[in-house]
Amino acid sequence: xxxxxxxxxxxxxxxxxxxxxxxxxxxxxxxxxxxxxxxxxxxxxxxxxxxxxxxxxxxxxxxxxxxxxxxxxxxxxxxxxxxxxxxxxxxxxxxxxxxxxxxxxxxxxxxxxxxxxxxxxxxxxxxxxxxxxxxxxxxxxxxxxxxxxxxxxxxxxxxxxxxxxxxxxxxxxxxxxxxxxxxxxxxxxxxxxxxxxxxxxxxxxxxxxxxxxxxxxxxxxxxxxxxxxxxxxxxxxxxxxxxxxxxxxxxxxxxxxxxxxxxxxxx
Length: 267
Prior knowledge:
Layout: E1 3-5, E2 15-19, H1 21-33, E3 39-41, E4 61-67, H2 71-86, E5 90-96, H3 111-120, E6 123-127, H4 143-159, H5 168-175, E7 179-180, E8 182-189, H6 193-201, H7 207-211, E9 215-222, H8 226-240, E10 245-252, E11 259-266
Parallel strand pairs: 1-10, 2-3, 2-4, 4-5, 5-6, 6-7, 9-10
Antiparallel strand pairs: 8-11, 9-11
Helix pairs in contact: 1-4, 2-3, 6-8
């Protein structure tokens, strides 16, 4: 049986973003320019240029962005994740593989640092150039741009206070102590935009993979309604099976003009 959970949220989830290395900093700067409410982009260094050692307090979620082949960045973000763990902040990492997908995820001298980082965070996304195989490839300039949109989507899910929002409890259930999670992004236009968006999101995903996943989080935003959200959930259900649990967020954006975007998180 399809389980769909949603609720209107009163308590705002507070998010912090830290990017390491040139890639992480570029993505963080783009996030900062969005001027989200209740989202802070934190510097790695304090004003005296020393490594950030001040306690991370007042946040519910910490997003860590880093290249999977940046040894220094991995070490730095592992330290920050450890600080967050000490204060009970949930940590979500975005590991961006700037090397071609056909090559190893990281060089040999980064493997231990990568392993330590993964073990230190609650959940992590591995982002590589396999997105180029999907139906949405032409919408992104490069892997950095795609990675930015993945991070943006997670913030939008946590930050949205529109038609239906996901609360902190649901976010923790989805990301706390989950290890690697997957993300699929889609776009739709016209009368069947919701179903089209889901279909483009899972365009190149093997059906057997989807059927082995029990929990999904769907964010649908654009010129949409509750009916569109229901259509999106039913469309995913047809592919992934009857027994899945879906939590969803719906955010209306008038400027989208009969278009919608969907982000599907699978854990």
